[in-house]
Automatic annotation (TrEMBL):
The keyword rRNA-binding does not apply. It is a single-pass membrane protein. This is sterol 14alpha-demethylase. Its cofactor is heme. It is found in: Membrane. Keywords: Heme, Iron, Lipid biosynthesis, Lipid metabolism, Membrane, Metal-binding, Methyltransferase, Monooxygenase, Oxidoreductase, Steroid biosynthesis, Steroid metabolism, Sterol biosynthesis, Sterol metabolism, Transferase. Belongs to the cytochrome P450 family. It comes from Arachis hypogaea (Peanut). One of its GO terms (cellular component) is membrane. It comes from the Eukaryota. GO terms for biological process: methylation; sterol biosynthetic process. Its EC number is 1.14.14.154. InterPro entries: CYP450_sterol_14alpha_dmase (IPR050529), Cyt_P450 (IPR001128), Cyt_P450_CS (IPR017972), Cyt_P450_E_grp-IV (IPR002403), Cyt_P450_sf (IPR036396).
Length: 488
């Protein structure tokens, strides 16, 4: 018995000694940085946090942020995804050069949709030049001519509504935005003659981007086969249009023309395939994002009489000043409407998760003063949907309060550049932001001036399952034509 007790005692002693020695070794031998790795989200062996991530990344963030703070790592199989939440820790995410944090690997799944030779299929130096083409195609002088087309499209579209009636606003705005986008971006030929064909092909491209496509973009499933066929047909259609414009020397005011006329630094013009790919990328970047935002804007305005009156009053003032004229400069004066759109977009950014791949180690300091080292090889993520509702930045973050952006409050700026991130920011901030605002303002100013509107379905829920997160179900609205009375 005595022998057993002393054996047990010796074993315990050995066990404790081993732990102490292991701790000492790890303190002295293991590099210091290891001690500052971000905390890890609890998960299952091997698959790690996959089930929780699949349940919805925002639900996971809501659970983990209060426990772990703004920096933590989610393990999935052999991958580490480190989240940087809040402007205090996300600056590097937005500002780092491509050599340190890159998009190419994490956004590869777009390649079969956009096509070869563009955006994430090319080296950063070429991609940078292609983004320069986007920047040029979206300059103010170009935007001015796009606005005229946006206004005409809205007028034509809503002229088909009756004296009064009930519509699904979500469907209507989706449809109007694809018409407008095809006019401004894809060009007159597509808008006037090929709209049905091209939008059916875009529909197939769209359906070819499923959540599974992010992990396995080339999986031989019917949706991917249809996507590939649609892409081929679109390339043929645009090749014909481009050839015809080139042979007749006809030039138009659209993004297609800008891309046809674009040249790389070495003087090389864009190829037909590149022009097609860039147009598809533009449509993918701007279409769902804008139509979702215009629907949320409507849902909030029609549920908040204070802001609905404020935007209607603003329209009256502008009509007194400019009559019926709506152009780029008149839209630029719609500050109240701008803030109402911006606030809908704060609460519902359609791109809920932004990703990068890290190629160098870097460190971040949280607002509590904790320092963490993020090793190279991690995927780094931030989330507009979560960060845009942080209570230490936005007062009553779940409340629709467009006045939070007024001078004196400016909650989108006071905590630093990356407080409001619906359009990303820094090095890869959205190039289409002004275009998107102009388009949504053009639509809503027309609706406010010409219709009395009432939301008749319940306030919409969020469709978390979509790739570009939007509104779930229909948004039924009752309308009645009106003319705003203004004293000239
Ligand atoms: C409400 C509408 C829109 C929203 C919410 C939105 C959001 C975003 C976000 C969050 C990013 C950054 C992605 C990242 O950092 O990984 C981005 C990038 C981009 N967006 Fe938008 N976008 C919108 C409309 C548009 C439109 C209309 C266009 C073009 C016509 C456009 C073109 C682009 C381009 C080219 C980039 C890539 C910039 C770069 O990587 O340097 N977007 N957008």
């Amino acid at each position: 018995m005595d022998i057993d007790v002393s054996k047990f005692f010796n074993t315990c002693l050995l066990f404790v000694a081993t732990i102490v020695v292991a701790k000492l070794i790890s303190a002295f031998i293991v590099p210091k940085s290891r001690k500052r790795l971000p905390p890890i989200v609890k998960g299952l062996p091997f698959i790690g946090g996959l089930p929780r991530f699949l349940k919805g990344p925002i639900f996971m963030l809501r659970e983990e942020y209060p426990k772990l703070g703004g920096v933590f790592t989610l393990k999935m199989f052999h991958k580490n995804i480190t989240f940087l939440i809040g402007p205090e820790v996300s600056a590097h995410f937005f500002k780092a050069p491509e050599s340190e944090l890159s998009q190419q690997e994490v956004y590869q799944f777009n390649v079969p949709t956009f096509g070869p030779g563009v955006v994430f299929d090319v080296d950063y130096s070429v991609r940078q030049e292609q983004f320069r083409f986007f920047t040029e195609a979206l300059r103010v002088n170009k935007l001015k001519s796009y606005v005229d087309q946006m206004v005409t499209e809205a007028q034509d579209y809503f002229s088909k509504w009756g004296e009064s009636g009930e519509v699904d606003l979500k469907y209507e705005l989706e449809h109007l935005i694809i018409l407008t986008a095809s006019r401004c971006l894809l060009g007159r030929e597509v808008r006037d003659k090929l709209f049905d064909d091209v939008s059916a092909l875009f529909h197939d491209l769209d359906n070819g981007m499923q959540p599974i496509s992010v992990l396995f973009p080339y999986l031989p499933i019917p949706a991917h086969r249809r996507r590939d066929q649609a892409r081929k047909k679109l390339a043929e259609i645009f090749a014909r249009i481009i050839a015809s414009r080139k042979s007749t020397g006809k030039s138009e005011d659209d993004m297609l023309q800008c891309f046809i006329d674009s040249k790389y630094k070495d003087g090389r013009p864009t190829t037909e395939a590149e022009v097609t790919g860039l147009l598809i990328a533009a449509l993918f970047a701007g279409q769902h994002t804008s139509s979702i935002t215009s629907t949320w804007t409507g849902a909030y305005l029609l549920s908040n009489s204070k802001y609905l009156s404020a935007v209607v009053d603003e329209q009256k003032i502008l009509m007194e000043k400019h009559g019926d004229r709506v152009d780029h400069d008149v839209l630029a004066e719609m500050d109240v409407l701008y803030r109402c759109i911006k606030e809908a977009l704060r609460l519902h950014p359609p791109l809920i998760m932004l990703l990068r791949s890290s190629h160098t180690d870097f460190s971040v300091t949280t607002r509590e003063g904790k320092e963490y080292d993020i090793p190279k090889g991690h995927i780094v993520a931030t989330s507009p949907a979560f960060a845009n509702r942080l209570p230490h930045i936005f007062k009553d973050p779940d409340t629709y309060d467009p006045d939070r952006f007024t001078v004196g409050r400016e909650e989108d700026k006071v905590a630093g550049a990356f407080s409001y991130i619906s359009f990303g920011g820094g090095r890869h901030g959205c190039l289409g932001e002004p275009f998107a605002y102009l388009q949504i303002k053009a639509i809503w100013s027309h609706l406010l001036r010409n219709f009395e509107l009432e939301l008749v379905s319940p306030f919409p829920e969020i469709d978390w399952n979509a790739m570009v997160v939007g509104v779930k179900g229909k948004v039924m609205v009752r309308y009645k034509r009106r003319e705003l009375s203004v004293s000239h």
